Each structure stands twice: as structure tokens, then as C-alpha cells.
Amino acid sequence: MNEALISLQERINSRTAVVGIYGLGYVGLPLALRFCEVGVKVIGFDIDTYKVDRLNAGQSYIERLSPQHIERALAQGLEATTDFARTAEADVLIICVPTPLNSHREPDLGFVIETLTSILPHFRPGQLLSLESTTWPGTTDEVLAPRLIERGFIPGGNCALVFSPEREDPGNPDYGTHDIPKVIGGMTPVCLELGQAIYRHAIRTLVPVTSTRTAEMTKLLENIHRAVNIGLVNEMKIVADKMDIDIHEVIRAAATKPFGFTPYHPGPGLGGHCIPIDPFYLTWKAKEYGINTRFIELAGEINHYMPHWVVQKTADALNEHGKAVKGSRILVLGLAYKKNIDDSRESPAVEIMELLHGKGALVDYADPHVPSFPKKRDYHFDLQSVELNADNIASYDCLVLATDHDSFDYELIQSRARLIIDTRGRLSRQNNVVPA
């Protein structure tokens, strides 16, 4: 280990190392707060001036992180900035930016590459770079490492490079950032050693693996496992619906088996930034090796179809009530991709709204966690969340329960609604409830 990395290790061990976190969203901000909590100085970088200004004013833009969390972190040394020149002040650089798909459902590393491009003019010997953004196996050593080497920075020589995938689970009260075991792969053994040293301060359990590719594949397997099983149970839901069987009752009964079965629950489609996207990172990369990932792609097709299935069920139910979709007033309950959170990224509820709108419906939504429809690349609704009172509920021709927040008054909803399309199995089977 050369002198620059020895010095880095000493600063990490003494907790005098400064951590720079790039991307202050649902992954980066909780991680920044956790490092602050254990006494590590953090500089948070983001290109969004709104986020930076809110943080520096002690305010939060993520529901589960209160202003008190932000104020405490500021008192512990957190600074937020849009000035990437301050990269030189940090010893550890952690990239937590989105990795979406493009219009052809291919990986889009634009945010990662743009972030790295902004970092490199200020990168110096003795820094550690960690990528947490989910991506295809090989990204760290095929995309990041060459850009460092071009500028004379050699991973394991005068700098360190690791991949350590994020594992945030918003809305899960049992697992915070520090509770979730952290997988880490390094470009070299020295890189891995330094990566473990910094993350050890903030995370209780570390899971070192032999390479960055292994760490990258681990993250994909985790989410593909979920996507495939959700695809299976969504297909089972369609079959059960045709047979007039309650799939939720079936799942509850099957889950009593103490071995060999893990319950997964159907819904209106996949949401969030990981599960709808990550499988396609592997299918894209696998083609380079002449492999067609048919199983993964089939699950993706089923999950992608689910919002369309919900809309068809809605149209059929309205027709049974003598109404067409066109001109009907429809209220979508829940905009977030899962219950009790404010994150609507890739939410199937949004696609359901778009599909209903395309068929001529007058669409509103109600979500206490998302008071205003957020800005999105593909969907544009100028809407505010509707208050769920007795009169409002009764005024709609149909309600579509897309996200079953615990805060919804289901007794009121079921007693006042003319027609409800229940995609979550939350409501009791009554005349005005149609499972979907």
C-alpha cells in the first residue's frame, strides 16, 4: 500500500476522513445522515439546487426523514453543495445516483458517467471511490476504472475503487441503513480493505466478496429473485381470477407450510427504482455472452402487463354498472409504489392513471404521502391529492385501490364508494368491490 493509501487508511481509522456523497435522494441522504450520526464529516453533492437549499436550511424532502434528522446532521457537520470542486476536500467519494433504463429498455449509465466526469477534474491520489448505484456486472472495472487510469489513478495503487450496492428498503421499520448487511467488492484486495474500513463505521455487518463483478451480480440476483416471484404470483392472480378463486386466501393458506414456500403478494405491477429496472441490466449484459435470459424476460412481460390488466378489469366493472370508461370520474387510491412511503418512482399507479386518461376517463388521485403529483419524465398530471371524505368518495364513478396505505379509512371508503377495483386484496368481498 503506497503512502497516499496508508494516509487514507489512517484517516478512516481515526474517523477524520471526510465522506462525499453524490446524489442526495432516497439512498444517498439516509447514508449521509448515518455517517454523520457516527461522527464522520460528510459533504453531500447534488445538481438539484432545491435539495441542497432545503438541506442547508434544515429541511427535509423525504417523508421518513424529519427536519430534526436534518438539523442533527447539520450540527454534526453535514454540508450540502452543488460545487463539485469540493470533491478535493473529501477522502471517500460515494456515488448514489439513478441508473434508469432508456426508451429501448437498455441500461442508461448517463447519471453515473456525468457524476464521474464532474468528479475527475478534482480527484486526487489517496481517495476512495465507491459506486452504490445498481448496474450490470462489469461496470466498475469496464466503465469507472478506465476513466481513472486515463488520468493516472491506479486502483489499489494510488487510489481505491469499490462497488457496494445500496440495499435501502423505504417504509420498512425493522431495517434502517445501519441494520442491513452491506456487500462490498473491491478492484484489488487493498481496495476491498479500505472499502470495508470506511463502511464499518456506519454499517453493522459487512459482506466482502471477491470482486466488484460479484458485488454487482449480487444486487441483480436479489432484485431478479423478487421480480420473478412477483411475476409468478401475478400470473397466478390472473388464473385464479378466471376461476373465481381468491388468490390472497390461497397465499395465506400456502404460507402455513413451514418449509419450501415463501409468500409473495400480487399487485397492479412493479414499482420503485430497483425491481422493475434491474433485471433488464442483466438481460442486456447477458446478450454480450450470447445468452437469452428467457425466464427473467417472461417475468418482466407479466409484470409490465399488470397495469393494463387492472385497467381492463376497471373497464369491465364500469360496463357492468352501465358506464363507459370515457367520461367516468375515477379516483386512484395511492400514488406511491408501495404502502406507507412517499416514493412514486416507477409506480404502477401512475401508469394506471395514464392508461385510464388515454381512454377518456377523468382521473384524480388520493395519497396522503404524495400531496402533489411529482415531476416525471414520461407522465404529466397537474394534480393535487384529493381529500378522502364521504362526499368526495361518493362523487366518483369508480375508485382504484393501487397502493394500500395504512392511513386510508377503508371502512369509510367501502361504505361510500359506488365501485372499487381492489388490486391489493385489502378490502372484504362485497358487491361494490372487484378484485384485480
What does this protein structure show overall?
With 436 residues, the chain is an alpha/beta fold. The model has no long low-confidence stretch (mean pLDDT 95). It has an 8-stranded mixed beta sheet, with helices on both faces. The chain has a 5-stranded parallel beta sheet with strand order 10-9-11-12-13, covered by helices on one side. The protein is globular and about 75 Å long. The protein folds into 2 domains: 3-209, NAD(P)-binding Rossmann-like Domain (Rossmann fold, 3-Layer(aba) Sandwich), CATH 3.40.50; 305-435, NAD(P)-binding Rossmann-like Domain (Rossmann fold, 3-Layer(aba) Sandwich), CATH 3.40.50.720. It contains 14 helices and 13 strands. Helix 6 (139-150) links the parallel strand 5 (128-131) and strand 6 (160-163).
Q: In brief, what are we looking at here?
A:
The protein contains 14 helices and 13 strands. The protein has 436 residues and is α/β, with parallel strands linked by helices.
Shape: globular
| Helix content class | 25-40%
How much of the polypeptide forms β-strand, as a percent range? 5-15%
Task: Write the H/E string, N to C.
Answer: HEHEHHEEHEHEEHEHHHHEHEHEHEE
What is the terminal-to-terminal distance? 59 Å
The average pLDDT value, as a whole number, equals: 95
CATH hierarchy: architecture of the largest domain: 3-Layer(aba) Sandwich
pLDDT below 50 for ≥5 consecutive residues: which ranges? none
Determine the structural class based on helices, strands and strand pairing.
alpha/beta
Task: Quote the CATH topology of the largest domain.
Answer: Rossmann fold
The total count of strands amounts to 13
How many helices? 14
- Radius of gyration over C-alpha positions, nearest whole angstrom: 24 Å
- Count of domains: 2
Largest sheet: 8 strands, mixed
**Major beta sheet, strand line-up:** 3-2-1-4-5-6-7-8
CATH level-1 class of the largest domain: Alpha Beta
